Structure formats: C-alpha cells, structure tokens
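Student: Please help interpret what follows.
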Amino acid sequence: MRCCDDLRNAALADASIASIAARWGFRSRDAFTRLLRTSYGMTPQVLRAQALEQDRQARGGGHGQASALPVVVVHVRDLEGTSSPWQAYAA
C-alpha cells in the first residue's frame, strides 16, 4: 500500500498517524489501524518505528550519532597502579 510509504518516510516522522490516514482517505485512525493490522500483522505505530529504526541503522547512526569508530571509555581508577604510556605525561 502506498499509504505505508508515508509511514516509512523519515521526512514525515513528525506527521501524526491520523493525518497520514486522512491524507489517504481513511475516515478514522482506527480504520487505518485495522487495515494495516490485517494486511501486515502490525499497527501503524510498529510499522513506522521499525522503518525509522532501519533508516537510522542504514545511515550508520547510533542514538543520533553517525560514527564508524568504536568508542572506548577508560576510567582513571582502572589505570591506577599500572604502568601505562600515560604515566610518562603525568610527571
């Protein structure tokens, strides 16, 4: 269904489900939800969430960040009492 393309469209993520349903001629959000649940086995909310998550992952973003490099967090307490290259800079 072409109306599902609007749900999957990241540019329309702020549009309400009711407004998308009305745009495609549905008289109510409930009728739209029933049709999608019957046709796809999921609600419009779930369909939209899955599509937006796939879009985010395809862009390489993690929680809004587009980064291909892993982030390494080292706590200072984990380095205490160990010899590390950083100790040479601390003096």
Notes: The chain has one domain: 2-65. DSSP finds six helices and two strands in the chain. The CA atoms of residues 60 and 66 lie 5 Å apart.
